[in-house]
Amino acid sequence: MGFGEEASFYSSVMVGGVLVLSALLSMAVVDRVGRRALLSSGGVLMLICQITIAIILVGKVGDQQQLSRSLSIAVMALICLFALAYGWSWGPIGWTIPSEIFPLEIRSAGHSITVSENLLMTLIVFESFLPLPCTLRFGLFIFYAGWIAAMTIFVFLFLPETKGVPIEKMTAVWRNH
Question: What superfamily does domain 7-176 belong to in CATH?
Answer without folding.
Answer: MFS general substrate transporter like domains (1.20.1250.20)
